[in-house]
Amino acid sequence: SSGINAEYGEMMKLSSAFNSGCFHLVRVLFHRVSFVRSIHTVPNYPPAPPTLIPEHHAPTSFPDYNPNEYFKFEIVHKSSKSNARVGRIHTPHGTIETPGFVSVATNACIKCLDPVSTPSFTNQQLIFCNTYHMIVHPGADIVREAGGLHKYMNYTGPIITDSGGFQVFSMMGEGEGLDDKTEFNESSGIDELKGKGGRVYQGSIVSVKEEGVVFKSYRDGKKISLTPESSVDFQKQLGADIIIPFDELLPYDVTEEKLHLSLYRTHRWEARSLYRHISNPQKQAMYAVIHGGNNLDLRKESIDYLTSLPFDGFAIGGSIGRNKEEMLTLLKFIVPLLPAEKPNHLLGIGDTISLDLCVPLGVDTFDSSYPTRAARHGTLLTKAGNLLIKKAENERKSSQPIDPTCKCFSCQNYSIAYLHH
Prior knowledge:
The protein is α/β, with parallel strands linked by helices. The protein has helices at residues 118-122, 131-136, 140-145, 149-152, 165-170, 228-238, 256-278, 296-306, 324-334, 352-358, 370-376, 409-413, 416-420, and strands spanning 16-19, 22-25, 72-78, 85-91, 94-98, 100-104, 127-129, 159-161, 205-208, 213-216, 223-226, 242-243, 285-290, 313-316, 344-346, 365-368, 379-382, 385-388. It has 13 helices and 18 strands. α8 (296-306) links the parallel β13 and β14 (313-316).
């Protein structure tokens, strides 16, 4: 349900200039669209194993839920040349202008940048914190006692947190995923989680069952249970504006049978997560995560089911291909099927080439550690292309800024030679 106002701005091209980890996104305007949540009973889906206990079935009805008082999405402008669109996501901690890049603050801090000055330096409007790392250290309960992520890190803008599922299932390494009977001990084949400094942590995953996942902390070996319900509870303690339901992540090369079973489990987990969230919204919004791997039929099935549930937005997750060609094929199929009146988010993709390719498809927001990772390795992203600051040829460029046309802090205050040094 939408009400469209008169167009008052022409869509400007999204441009980005990343300078030693900071960036600028040109803001754009839109037509207004609002939506009202309708709550309904959904079919008894997805298919469940006959041995599944009732508590682990996907809910078929949800409590009354209307987030419009604190979470709204409006479309300000649509491109006449592509599916690109400009919009605003209104949250309790501010407005997010789309299309927009979302920096990753893994441990509640964007690497090499502090939370207080980051917004003014970068025009950043949304940051992404990882629930897995926050529950391992310092613990979601400690963050809650500090007043939530915003007060804990002294950041006043909107925050999105993930469910922890991506990091947990990344512990598996290469393989075809797990079934309901899978349990591990110290000699398990699931043998690593790469943390800071490239260290390898042994025996991280203890078990993966329908109830959820049990894993060992990479800091002290303590066992931690992550279920659809506990993942939501952790994110409630963290207090982000947008949260993500618990899902299962499989690698690219899996059998069709395992992909089907994983999709159904993920749908059950997401429905359970949503029910837990709606029971105590706390002025948070929840995005569903579309799965199905590279199988277009399963992606369609995932969209059909998850859009029947009262989610506030939709993230595109799971494996999206081995290369940009496969990614584009998937996104060209997925994005037009998502509800146009709700925001969408592409998980884990945010390099400059992908931004240029995906914005015309209608993707609203992207998260990635790419710019800070590139900066730490000496790559500066400019309008003229990548500048490899460590090259010897930059040693004597003491009178040259990174980008003479850029008004960001780095370009205005430091020379190429100094940054090389």
